[in-house]
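Entry type: protein chain
Record version: 2
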Amino acid sequence: MLQKNVFALLGYPLSHSFSQRYFTDKFIALGLKGYKYECFEIKTLSLLPNIIQDNPLLQGFNVTSPYKQEIFSYLDEIDEVAREIFSVNCVKVEDNKLIGYNTDWLAFRESLKNNTDIKNLHRALILGSGGAAKSVAYALDSLNISYVFVSRSFSKEENYITYEDLNKENYNGFDLIVNATPCGLDSYPAISDIDTRKINSKHVVFDLIYNPTKTTLLCEAYKNGAKIINGLEMLYLQAEYCWNIWNKI
């Protein structure tokens, strides 16, 4: 079959990803013959120019960990919101230019609104400080929910604390806990820095990971009575936002 359009996922590792399956099923459902979605699992982003050169039919690609911030230096144009967040998860290839966007924040916000009563959420813990964490923060800003980043390394910024500092406190000062790290993926160890014994029925715990369906963090939170949400709906939502960008005339 003659290929017309190629789309892809870029990151490392990718064995956990459902993106290829999602878009392949979507192409079949829409009757889009000649459309293909590939996975480019690369250990260094320096291989990106070769991928672009070797795939002249590439129309767009998703970017996942660990390249959501590193990708900036390879882009010709960056959407204003993506630039502000400093994280790109969607790239459109147009007129030989790479244009970066962020759909993660929209997907996180929509999934959070679909699964919780937003008016009951006032303060959040964001575990991590990378591109995914920045997208979560941007979404929470749009919902007027305050937040604190939790990182393993010390930061002088006002809204950053370390896990050591966090675990000295009672978690009841927070309504929402978001894991925006890769800890818990099949290829990564479970997150161990947070004291899950302090999570209770007053908390909503949102883990951006969707494979496995329930990470260790979500399992422990559920046992303690917390409302839990995984990242599967967010994955599908960001994919649809990406599809709209790739097909925008």
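Comment: The mean pLDDT is 93.
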